[in-house]
Amino acid sequence: MDDDDxxxxxxxxxxxxxxAFGESxxxxxxxxxxxxxxxxxxxxxxxxxxxxxxxxxxxxxxRSFLCPSQQSSLLSAIRGEGWFDDGCHxxxxxxxxxxxxxxxxxxxxxxxxxxxDVSPASGKELSPxxxxxxxxxxxxxxxxxxxxxxxxLIANVYNPGEGICAHVDLMRFADGIAIISLESECVxxxxxxxxxxxxxxxxGEVQGEEGPLIRVPVLLNPGSLVLMSGEARYLxxxxxxxxxxxxxxxxxxxxxxxxxSVTLRKLCK
Length: 269
Ligand SMILES: O=C(O)CCC(=O)C(=O)O
Ligand SMILES: [Fe+2]
Hints:
Blueprint: H1 3-21, H2 35-42, E1 49-52, E2 59-62, H3 68-80, E3 91-95, H4 100-114, E4 117-118, H5 141-144, E5 152-158, E6 164-167, E7 177-183, E8 186-193, E9 205-208, E10 211-220, E11 225-228, H6 231-234, E12 237-240, E13 248-249, E14 252-253, E15 259-265
Parallel strand pairs: 1-4
Antiparallel strand pairs: 1-2, 2-11, 3-5, 5-15, 6-12, 7-11, 7-15, 8-10, 8-12, 9-10, 13-14
The structure holds 2-oxoglutaric acid and fe (ii) ion.
Fe (ii) ion binds near residues 167, 169 and 238.
Protein name: Fe2OG dioxygenase domain-containing protein
Organism: Canna indica (Indian-shot)
Family: Belongs to the alkB family.
């Protein structure tokens, strides 16, 4: 991509971000936005860098997906739904037409993929352009351009110590799943049985109940976006174990606080 193309792309992305987070003309309370975000728009557009997670094909992480003010706006929008007001519920699901803020979030996911930079850390310093293969996109393009991109959301609130057991998301959901993390950071583990291909690319091996497992930890910082497709979505289980003694990153225990996440998926036809 030459400099002109790059500037043009940044321009498009800036406009897209303005549309998603800009001053609301219809006064819809449903939307999430903030004046800080509006100020940020005047300045540089933050580069959205994507990392391919080593060893887990189809797993991508964008650590800088939402800046702090966007994270606060999103949290306020979620709280504004009143789903968790009674203190008894820690999960809410919506199908079909998503609230305005979730539709905007979906749009931001699409833009984050379309205007992505693949991380040099992954050893593949590529900007995805048409001449590169599908593997260079954080989400395969047929999924990226489906309509709607997502029609189901789950908001989860986890208190310290609470997580989610190892699972593959239900087959009623199509390929291409997004997870946005807010508040406390945490480590999500991806696991799959050791037998099979691509064993030489793995970061860790442990003994699971069903035999040896390949285990790949991923740090989900607040504001990060995870995308799972293909093998990451269908062959690997994901899990967050926040019980005492399980949340470590680089040898250090993670200080746990409340964590909120939004998972966006599409129902199969
Ligand atoms: O809360 C998360 O980060 C993951 C949620 C999840 O995996 C699910 O709801 O299927
Ligand atoms: Fe899941």
